[in-house]
Amino acid sequence: MSLHLDYSGFKTLLLALALPPAPLLLLAAWGGWRLRRGRRAGGWILGLALVLTWLSATEAAGELLSRASGSPAALTRAQVEALKGRSDGAVLVLGGGVHRHLPEYDGGALKRPTAERLAYGVWLARRTGWPLAFSGGIGWTATELRQPEAEIVARVAAEDYALPLRWVESRSRDTRENAANSLPLLAQAGVKEVLLVTDDGHMRRALRAFEAAAAPLGLRIVPAPIGLRDDALGGFDDWCPSADGFSRMRNIVYETLAWWAGR
Q: pTM for the complete prediction?
């Protein structure tokens, strides 16, 4: 059996090594090795690694990192209400992943990030009266998919929310292509302002790509992030490991690495 690593496989391997908990486990192993060799600093390294491993699965640490990264603030209800009555806007939701097939749906279904983004996009569309758009194809590492993400989302929006998508962009493989492929469609339809919906960790990187692509088209991009919390630091459970905390921390670390890499 031979192991063939194409671009998607190589990227998956790099992410597995770069995202929590792998780097922290390696740090703990190094600290343990130094401690076993009689070096006192090994104990400090091991202890630090264990503390960081704990924090890497907490919502509180994820919230602190999100705030430190400079994620835009959430839209207020007053800001949303002020957009009513205008006919030159659109709500654009970015994809966050789909399942190729789930037996309970007997078909493709949305992963949690996409489901949350779509739900907020529908909420915005209904309160502003603006049409809804979605951008997402088959990502670089989504090699198991046979159907573009946007096609699955279009079905869910129509069947489950009774709000068909006005624009469906299904060729994009990453955030840059989301911007390059979707914004011309909106501009051609006379859209001047776009409410951009994605999660708080992804928003800063998405804004960089979308504002660069929007400038030549005369479009204004308004961030509409989801996932922000104003109550994630005060509770004891916020500082305890959880599946939500682990997922959020991995997402923020991934987005930070992608930002530094210029992707």
A: 0.88
* Superfamily name with CATH number, domain 77-226: HUPs (3.40.50.620)
Backbone angles phi, psi at 134, to 5 degrees: -140, 140
Helix (H) or strand (E) holding 212: helix 200-214
Q: Say what the pLDDT of residue 187 is.
A: 97
| Cα-Cα end-to-end distance for the chain | 33
pLDDT, residue 1, reads 40
Q: Which ranges in the chain are annotated with CATH 3.40.50.620?
A: 77-226
Q: Could you give the CA distance from residue 157 to residue 96 in angstroms, rounded to a whole number?
A: 15
Residues in the chain: 263
- Provide φ and ψ at 222, rounded to 5°: -115, 115
Give every CB contact of residue 139 below 8 A, 6+ residues apart in sequence: 95, 97, 145, 149, 173, 174
Contact 202, 116 (CB under 8 A): no
Low-confidence ranges of the chain (pLDDT < 50): 1-2
Q: At how many degrees (to 10) do helices 175-188 and 200-214 cross?
A: 50
| 215 Cβ contact list (under 8 Å, min separation 6) | none
pLDDT digits (tens, 9 = 90+) for 211-235: 999 999 999 999 999 988 877 787 8
Q: To the nearest 10°, report the CA torsion of 73, 74, 78, 83.
A: 100
Query: In a 10 Å sphere around its CB, with 0-12 CB exposed, 13-18 middle and 19+ buried, how is residue 40 labelled?
Result: exposed
